[in-house]
Amino acid sequence: MKRILVPVDFSGDSLKALRFGIYLSNKLDCHLRMVHVQKSEKFEIPFHFEELKNEIIHTVQEYFEKLIKLHSADYCVRNGVFDFKIRTGSVYREIVNQAKYGDAYMILMGAYGASGFEEFFIGSNAVKVVTNSTCPVITVQKEFTKGQLKTIVMPIDASTDTRKKIPFVKEIASRCNAKVHILGVHETSDTNVIGKIEHYMKQGEDYLKDANIDYVKSLRKGDNNTYSTLDYAREVNADLIVIMTEQAESSINMFFGSYAQQMINRSEIPILSIPND
User: Fold this and answer.
1) Which helix or strand (DSSP H or E) is residue 180 part of?
2) Which end of the chain has a smaller Cβ tally under 10 Å, C or N?
3) Of all helices (H) and strands (E), which one includes residue 98?
4) Structural element, H or E, at residue 264
């Protein structure tokens, strides 16, 4: 059985990610594992942990045990395991290593964490996890409130790698009964580039059609593919945007390098980043 890994720093945002992780685990039939990374063996009280603010708890392990007790009724995977792991060291390295050696199907994490308590995901840590992970990563923003997936935006550009996200989108859409928006995006008027994008969109369409997944197609030109995608996703009230972590050098600057960071930092909609490997 596959496993979803949810990093938890006991902030409200990381607990939003946990609840979303429970939802996806139920839909995808996955084990669910929480992970907390300490900078040292010394225990610090996670004062942002509102859900158990009246509890007297002395260790990280006790906090996790309380969390499992609090949420176990919502985790409904037959023969599934809902557990936790505590690691010490560099935040992003330990999360990536836990996902790798724990054979995680995906990481689902808050893009921001508790200010003052290990500064868990503040700034570059979320991006570092995304760019170093060998498995897909969903980043959940602080504005996130929905907790379910009904509308997925799948941007398609002119790079060959852009199509690698299609099978993953198909599986999630099928399990969640979600509608997929196949969004072709480009920053040029070159008919060869546009033709290639339309061809890739048709391949995605055929793939989803064969799986009986509801979908629509749209093609948009703009100055910046990241912003074009975000604008479209907001228009259709999307629950998830799926991108590749990196694109080939021949791509038209879609989600390459700083664009992936822009997407994670600017989107209030959860972002699923899929590695090329």
Assistant:
1) strand 179-186
2) C
3) helix 91-101
4) helix 258-266
Rounded to whole angstroms, the Cα distance separating 245 from 162 reads: 10
How many Å apart are CA 178 and CA 225, to the nearest integer?
23
Spatial distance between the Cα atoms of 52 and 186, rounded to a whole number of angstroms: 47
pLDDT by residue (tens digit) across 141-177? 766 666 789 999 999 999 889 999 999 999 999 999 9
Work out the burial of residue 129: count CB atoms within 10 Å of its CB; fewer than 13 is exposed, 13-18 middle, 19 or more buried.
Answer: buried
Please name the residues in contact with 91: beta carbons below 8 A apart, sequence gap of 6 or more. 37, 39, 118, 120, 121, 125
Whether residue 181 contacts residue 204, with contact meaning beta carbons closer than 8 Å, is answered with: no
- Name residues whose C-beta falls within 8 Å of residue 41's C-beta, 6 or more positions apart in sequence: 88
Q: Which domains does the chain have, with CATH numbers?
A: 3-140 (3.40.50.620), 151-274 (3.40.50.620)
- The 3-class secondary structure across 158-176, one letter per residue, is CCHHHHHHHHHHHHHHHHH
Is residue 153 helix, strand or coil?
A: strand
Please state the three-class secondary structure of 15-56 as a single string. Answer: HHHHHHHHHHHHHHCCEEEEEEEECCCCCCCCCCCHHHCCCC
d(CA 3, CA 29): 9
Tens-place pLDDT, residues 46-77: 545 555 555 655 678 888 888 899 999 999 99
Q: Residue 193: helix, strand or coil by DSSP?
A: helix
- The amino acid that residue 170 corresponds to is K
Per the CB < 8 A criterion, the answer to whether 59 and 43 are in contact is: yes
| pLDDT of amino acid 51 | 58
